[in-house]
Write a structure and sequence with these properties.
Blueprint (H helix, E strand, L loop, with lengths): L2 H4 L8 H17 L2 E5 L9 H11 L9 E3 L11 E4 L3 H9 L14 E4 L4
Antiparallel strand pairs: 1-3, 1-4, 2-3
């Protein structure tokens, strides 16, 4: 037998590596419930959850919207996207599937939802 096959593989199942792998999987699963909406103008006092719900109603979706926030640094030259959470991946898929309907709605031609691809 080869000497490398006789050595135990302790590093592969180290507790820190297992915890790290589980945490990575949990984060990616949670991220799959996030949607980012681009092109929504910012206002001084805005209720993001009602704004997101109004946008989703335009595409005939009425899911429960979780955490809502603007992403990025506030800049006068650009519009920050809105990131929000849905309760399941299925709802996220439905919203993204119907997203192209927004381009034919008045006032929503430049608004587009997309999946959260942050790392």
């Amino acid at each position: 037998m080869r000497p490398s096959l006789q050595k135990p593989c302790n590093n592969a199942f180290a507790p820190k590596r297992i915890c790290s792998a589980l945490q990575t999987v949990a984060e990616s699963t949670e991220r799959k419930k996030h949607v980012i909406i681009y092109g929504v103008a910012e206002k001084e006092s805005e209720a993001l959850s009602t704004l997101v719900e109004d946008i989703l109603e335009e595409i005939d979706e009425k899911p429960v919207v979780g955490d809502c926030c603007r992403v990025g640094l506030k800049n006068a030259d650009s519009i920050r996207p809105i990131k929000f959470t849905l309760s399941s991946q299925d709802l996220e898929y439905q919203v993204l599937r119907k997203a192209k309907r927004l381009c034919i709605k008045d006032g929503y031609q430049k608004v587009y939802p997309s999946p959260d691809r942050t790392v």
